[in-house]
Amino acid sequence: MSRLNYSRRDFLKSIGLAAASLAMPGCANAYQRSVGKASADKPNFIIIFADDQGYQDVGCFGSPNINTPNLDRMASEGMKFTDFYSAASVCSPSRAALLTGCYPPRVGITKVLFPGDNIGLNPKEITIADSLKSRGYSCACIGKWHLGHLPEFLPTSNGFDSYFGIPYSNDMDGVKDRDKNLDRAWRQKDYSPWNVPLMRNEEIIERPADQTTLIERYTDEAVGFIRKNKNNPFFLYLPHTMPHIPLFVSDEFFVGDVYKAYKATIEQIDSSVGQVLAAIKKSGLDKNTLVVYTSDNGPWLGKKHHGGSALPLRDGKFSTYEGGMREPTIMRWPGKIPAAKVCSEVCGTIDLLPTFAELAGTKAPSDRVIDGKDIRPLMFAKPRAKSPHKAYFYYRGNNLEAVRNGRWKLRRSKKNTELYDLQADISEKNNLSDKYPDIVERLTTMMKEFDSELKANVRPPGKVS
Questions:
Q1: Domain ranges of the chain
Q2: Which of 107, 93, 155, 45 is nearest to 296 (CA)?
């Protein structure tokens, strides 16, 4: 079996040289002092990434029945983003975009990856972890990866020092009649026909993973990582397995009513957020840590009571309507991000890499096209701060289906041309394409030009033969 060339590691040569210097007489103490001094000037970064959570499924975003006191408090102490987007409406492409700062087709990840696939995130890509690692950060991924399950594509091959979690969605691996098993799995917590593995670094440590313990164990791992790295800068990527189906919670959060399974799952994730924030405070890192909470895509509406709600947005997962890609997002950084603020400017997960890089004292990669922008002015509520995106593009697979330009959104499919004024019609109910043909023409040209540029600058996924 041929294997990939790990040339991405060349990007990290400076780290290897620094590590090697520790072995030189008289250098270790000087190196440790320099790292300690630098860490005081570098913020820590935490991304908490839910899976299939709906826009409405947080108290401060309007949920009528889900209790999220920790996320609500996080919003009251930080900023709520109402127009924050994932770059895809399904798992793998959205995660590739988050970590690379690129629209998914640019990095070759355009579909959901399955256990039989031989592709993954190319190790030659520069991820958030790679970028921060070049500045001396410790980087951990704890949770669902879903960017390739083979060793060449796991987090430890893409900039992370450690990994604990499942390599793909929790409903994969040999399940038959998946939808028929969801209620049974919730009611009978010891029943699970899913055979997904739990991994530590590159090794499977449990199969099938006990999914009733995943949120709890992820949280414990995250808290431990924060405590361990309180004296040096760190990046914690915490992509939760749920509320992707099948839904599971620990005994503390379990309720017998299957129609409350989704609610219970979100409430345990909210509890996890509270524990992470408490660990930051207890470690004395509260004022030097940026925490971002968002989701990979909208709710899986076809799962009925096992899925969430994107209201007042239209549709959900798999869709380029707003419900598929606009995500409930909260950012908190005491003393930097002003409390109880709301940002309604367009931004998204692709903006995190360049923003984190600037905050850490480095730059986004300049040897390749990066679609994300620096959104520090929005985060810090600078006067008259506006979205750095002239337009935001909505890809479905390899196809560009929609564009947002300010208040206007054009969506083009094989069957329809749709134009919406999102400022007046957040639910995308009133198609104005016949009324404003000039706007349709302008945005169509914008879509064609951008898609042509992207397709001319595509980078391949990693592949093992």
A1: 14-379, 392-463
A2: 93
